[in-house]
Amino acid sequence: MSRVLRLGGRVLYEGLLALVVIFMVVPTVIVVLLSFSGDKFIRFPPQSWGTRQYETLVGSDEWLTPLTRSLGLGVAAAVLAVVIGLAAVLALYRTAAPGKELLQFLGLGPLLAPSVAYAVALYGLFADLRLLGSFYGLLLVHITMTLPFVLLIIGAAIARAPRDLELAALSLGASRARAWRDITLRLLLPALVASFIFAFIGSFDEAIVTSFLASIGFVTLPVEIFSSVRFGVDPVITAIATLLTLSTALLMVIYGMMRRRT
Amino acid sequence: MSQNAASPALHLRGLRKSFGAVTAVDGIDLAVEQGEFLTLLGPSGSGKTTILKMIAGFEAPGSGVIELAGRDVSRLSPAERGIGVVFQQYALFPHMTVGENIAYPLTLRKWPTPERTRRVQQMLNLVELSGYDGRYPRELSGGQQQRVAVARALAFQPDLLLMDEPLGALDRALRVGMQEEIRRIHRDSGAAILYVTHDQEEALTMSDRVAIMRVGQIRQIGPPRDLYERPADRFVATFFGECTLIPAEQLGPASGDEVRVRTLGQETTVRRGGALPERDISLAIRPGRFRLHPAPGDLPLPAAIVDLLYLGDAVRIIGHYPGVGEILARADPDQTRDLHIGQDVVFGFAPKDAVAVGGER
């Protein structure tokens, strides 16, 4: 019986592994290969090889502008989401502030609302406020949408950091500010980095809500990609995708190394 | 050390604290002398941890005064009080090595590096963990972590060390070893210790004096021997060690320490533990004071044996007698060879070994 179970488990495991490879890894590898194609159109396998796609990317504002905009928006949204999220988590876990449960629920709200419904509602609001295509309008929305990740990650970390540690530091002669800096903030550091990474990726990757709110004034990379796909696929996208895959992987490696050190 | 020979290391006067309608600490007056080991013993919810938090400065007193060596610290921050605190869950900083943990209070006090290094080595020697300074807390066992916590709390030479159930998270075998260790560290460091526990055995073996607490008040304070041999009331008698309570009737007012009582159909004179109510008193007798063969002058207590527990160097006898209830006795294994469960026996105890007590259990 247990042999049958073990065999079944093994088949299931290897089957799942095969599916992950087929649906996640293979397309990524193909895109990376395609980004080194020298062709004018996307076709696999490529007829010729080269760095033509990367040269086009760097040489034209068409892609470089939305890329830098997305990077700027992502970094700004992630930094602010982490600062706001940290303050919120401290209020939620370390004070007796009234209405904590409601705050917690509202903070996680964007995870519950379907993106399209949220986008349509915001579209109306932004049209009235003349915020369509505005960087600050999008920034607000991206902070709101990435805040749940920050709240969850930092919240989990502060729940694991015993309150006694801060009290111990106080009893050993530390001021409140010093205890907070030396102990609590230091112990939350990996969570701060992790939540920054997730918030950044969340903002950088966001296409649905942003495509409603971005317009000629301000277009992010995912929105630009979506609109370009409507008129045929520009092979430069493969170069962009490859760069994004690499940088995401790099961020994850950095985070993994940080976690191991603490 | 800022020792003021005239003043106790810690003096609490009329300390009170309420949480909403609940009074957690209800008027505590207590002095811990320089170098003394004093234990607050009480069941959970008796307010002992709240007292410790107020002394450490983590919780503001509702009213009352906290003095350290004659200095009123009631309104000072924890850092300004300079008291060492040892927590039940150790509270070592996980991102610092053992050496960095112990050096932390010295770094805050801006000690020069050579003196800091010397002091860390000295503290590691004190807790017998030399060579562990480069380890991280998670690489140590529970007992080792607690020793590091003690070393850290004593590193800046406080005159007073607070310990909140420091052995509560350790398993039983380790606890006994750590009890001896803490007593030795106490002798070597010279700091006064205020120790909190709900374990009466720990309090009995470790302390110079024990304060027994119940619902926010101190019921009795004294050396363990006084508390054990002369409990003030029923609660102390049953909470601090085991005892058998035999109903008795008071015959006239107490004269000095002694009181005339009628019990088990006889009249006799016994000592009293504290103030006695007019009615409803008991005689408290410790298990070791019962004799299996009553001596002349003993009061006889008939009982049926309910259970016999062989403990190696002693045998624990649980008996029953209508009107008295459970009887707890202890005897030499050689004397109990012929006993068996269900047997009727007559215990005897000398009137001088009984203490008259009143109050609730």
Q: Helix and strand layout, with pairings?
A:
The complex is a heterodimer of chains A (262) and B (361).
Chain A: H1 2-35, H2 52-59, H3 61-94, H4 100-112, H5 115-129, H6 135-160, H7 163-171, H8 176-205, H9 208-213, H10 221-229, H11 236-261
Helix pairs in contact in A: 1-11, 2-11, 3-6, 3-8, 4-6, 6-8, 7-8, 8-11
Chain B: E1 10-19, E2 22-32, E3 37-41, H1 48-56, E4 63-68, E5 71-72, H2 78-81, E6 84-86, H3 98-108, H4 113-126, H5 142-154, E7 160-164, H6 172-189, E8 192-197, H7 200-206, E9 209-214, E10 217-222, H8 224-229, H9 234-239, E11 244-250, E12 258-263, E13 266-272, E14 281-285, E15 299-310, E16 315-321, E17 325-331, E18 344-349, E19 355-357
Parallel strand pairs in B: 3-8, 3-9, 6-7, 7-8, 13-19
Antiparallel strand pairs in B: 1-2, 1-4, 4-5, 9-10, 11-12, 11-14, 12-13, 14-19, 15-16, 15-18, 16-17
Helix pairs in contact in B: 3-4, 3-5, 4-5
Number of strands of chain B: 19
Q: Compute the gyration radius of chain A: what is it?
A: 23 Å
Summing up helix and strand content along with how strands pair, one would put the structural category of chain A as mainly alpha
Q: What does the average pLDDT of chain B come to?
A: 91
Gap between N and C termini of chain A: 43 Å
Q: How far apart are the termini of chain B?
A: 43 Å
User: Which structural class is indicated by helix and strand composition of chain B?
Assistant: alpha+beta
Q: Helical region count of chain A?
A: 11
Strand order of the largest sheet of chain B: 6-7-8-3-9-10
Rg measurement of chain B, Å: 24 Å
Relative helix content of chain A: over 70%
Largest interface: A-B, 19 and 24 residues
Structure overview:
- The complex is a heterodimer of chains A (262) and B (361).
- Chain A has 262 residues and is mostly helical.
- Helices cover 80% and strands 0% of the residues of chain A.
- Chain A has eleven helices and no strands.
- Chain A is globular, with a radius of gyration of 23 Å.
- Chain B is of the alpha+beta class and 361 residues long.
- Chain B is built from nine helices and 19 strands.
- In chain B, α6 links the parallel β7 (160-164) and β8 (192-197).
- The two termini of chain B are 43 Å apart.
- The mean pLDDT of chain B is 91.
- The interface between A and B is medium-sized, with 19 and 24 residues.
